[in-house]
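DM from R.C. (forwarded with permission)

"hey, sorry to bug you on a friday — could you get me a structure for this? deadline for the figure draft is monday and I only need the backbone to look sensible"
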Amino acid sequence: METLGSEVLDTPVGPLVVVSHEDGAVAVCGFARTAEELFDSLDIPHEPTSPRGEPTAAAAALRAYFDGDLTAIDAIEVRQPGTALMQQAWQRLRDQPAGVTMTYSEMLPKAPRAAGRACAVNRVGILVPCHRVHRTDGNLGGYTWGLDIKRWLRHHENQADSLF
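My reply, with the result:
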């Protein structure tokens, strides 16, 4: 079994853990203090991890994202398990421009509940930006890391977008 590398980044909204494969593809990413806490918060099995000695390309891209370069994260490879429909939903999220939101119905017009489920089980938050999705009635819906962080990310993307 592959041992995944982990690193923790300080962000304006708290520590962000990035867990990646040897080839750099991100397996899990979210707001937590440790990889173990991250796995627990996502209710997924713990994978063997060890701290990265050097920052990865994903960490550098995430730092750039938080510094205002919202497209820096677009090229980072992610790899998470899921059905073909979930993979389609996650790709749709990755294609959604920063600062532009959509509804679950817009995300997957023929399967809005599946869109919601794909967001709920997304293991690579920010890189697969489910914070850009809201309910049809305009309410934010849910967010694994809490609505305060979802609001902050959306505000960040709107503010950074206006700088360019």
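R.C.: lifesaver. Residues 75 and 91 are 12 Å apart (CA to CA).
me: no worries. The beta strands are 4-9, 16-20, 26-31, 49-51, 102-103, 133-134.
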